[in-house]
Amino acid sequence: MKALKMRRGQGALLVFVFMMALAGLAGGFALGGGETGGKPVAKDGIVDLSGYSFEKSGTVPLAGEWYFARESLRQEAAYDRTVRVPGIWGGLPDGRGGLLPSQGYGTYRLALRNLPADHRMLGIRLPNLSTAYALYVDGALVGSKGVPGVDKASTTPFQLPDTVFFQPTGASVTLELELANFHHRTGGIRSVLVLGTPEQVKGIAFGHEAREFIVLGCLLMIGIYHIGLYALRRKELDNLLFAMLCFCVAGRMSVIGEGLLPRLVPELTWTAAGRLEYSFFVLSALCGFAYFRRTYSKELTRRWTFAACAGACLLLGLTWGVTLLESSSLILLYQAFVIVLSGASLYLLIVALIRGREGAALSLIGVAGFVGTVLSDIFFYNGWWRAPDMVPFGLLFLVIMNAFLISLRFSRTFAKAEKLSAELRSWNGQLEARIEERTEALRAAEQSRRQLVSNISHDLRTPMTLIQGYLEALRDGVISDPGQREAVIGAMLKKAEGLNELIRDLFDLSMLEARQAQMSYELVPLSAWIDRLAENYAMELLTKGIAFVCRTEGPGTESVSLKIDERRMDRVMSNLIYNAIQATPRGGEIRIEARRGARPYEAEIAVLDNGSGITPEELPKLFERLYQNDKSRNGSSGGSGLGLAIVREIVETHGGRIEARIRPEGGSAFIFTLPIAKRMITEELR
Predict the structure, then answer these.
(1) Fewest CB atoms less than 10 Å from the CB: which of 10, 113, 234, 571?
(2) CA-CA distance, 190 to 384, in Å (whole number)?
(3) Does 242 lie in the same domain as 109?
(4) What is the pLDDT of residues 25-58, one digit of tens each?
């Protein structure tokens, strides 16, 4: 269900992206002046402005049917047809059964009738016209760009939007527009001319220039910002690529539209500006694709980047190696290059979105809007519909999405940094506590080591001193009686056996603590083991006047088996029983009880006595090495204080645990647990 919801969400986002691309195209068409909004339209070369008010209704797009004279410059008899404006003349019927070529010259004518009488001055906003023109009003030249001629040699190309003003001498005026194109693949009027009052026309020019200045400034600032990011962190190459994308689109924008760069650099020729436009067009596509390929590097291989660079180099060489007319005639190659890279960018972003890459959704939305404006731009330059240059606005939309993405990444980075900082503070606190804890443990270990050395030294010094004294007495002849000599030798042997026992206990304890002691496990029935303990110790305890009881309790105990090293577990029981014997007076009682433990599949064995017991202060220290308490000494360990430490290690090696308790009725209790054999557990489960 969760995967289905995720797929539905991704599908909805893809539909939204597709809608954004269509909106970019439709928006470009609408902004291009494809509709006149009910205003006067040119028909048969005449615009009738009867009753029209510029103050109330605004400017008038001079769109519709203009008279056109091919290969004629303002000759009355040559106006033999009408053409749609805006539109290019390439491909129109030539009247002789053929089509007009894109290169050539001609004159457009439009008559304005019934001009409002309250306006003595009017203005016309002229767009970029390919590629040289001269505008006449009632035969008087009011504006021109370049020099239109009848052939390539006599024509000087130049393109810039312009605003011209004229003063009508009556209710009607005639506009004649000489246009020549020998340097570009398309000729004609691709964008509409606008008629209005001087204030309105100036407002249009100012609005276009302000819009381009704002967008251009934004692109340059964002590009510089990303250059700064790259300078601070050279590993982030995607910042450099995004900056180059902003600069390339800004560069292309500066040489088309309002022509900001040619205005700032008058020495820039039309040919150089055109080549810069095509170069920036190619580089924008390359940098944009490289940026997204770098950001989501796992979605497309590097071969795509190499292929894109090779294609860009080929197109750049073509741009600067041939004439602008030849390169503009191959515009479909440029457009195909851009469309392929745009499609590849959309593909990798869709794959990144499906794979859950961070920020892929925002990037995909931004790229979809940008690609929509690129397609609008391509449609415009092919003359398929009338639309302004929307690529800078598409890039601005992409930049906004990228800004959201950067903000998202920064916020998540800060959140992670805050989380890591909090965790680091917590770890530091825990580390300090652990250091303090380990410091205390080291102090305790050092104290234990010193105590161990002291105890071992004491336990070794006493018998060694006695043995040395006995040997000196024998050497000096102090003891001459054979009976006394035998007694002394027997005493020295007993002390030597005690030393050997201490050394053996120390060795066994060290091996057990390191879990390197050799264990010989075998399956032993619990009841049989308890019965054998009763037989081994019953007689000895009877002679000491101490009652001894061994029994198993609880249901199912008779079937319990333990996997133990019986020799070492006998040592555990010997230690605990002799401790109990030392603490229990004549007439007392020692009990061994075995039962199932509180936890499943666990046996519990308890050694109980009603002797002098254990004080609460002794409980935490009983199982420490060399803790010497007369009650804890036993024959097994020679009273070295290692017995209970060895007991604990043997029990834990078997996977059990041991503890000592003070019995409420008096005496002490040593209780340990051992796991029941797995074979028995399997049989019970069956």
Answers:
(1) 234
(2) 10
(3) no
(4) 444 434 333 445 578 999 999 999 998 888 888 9
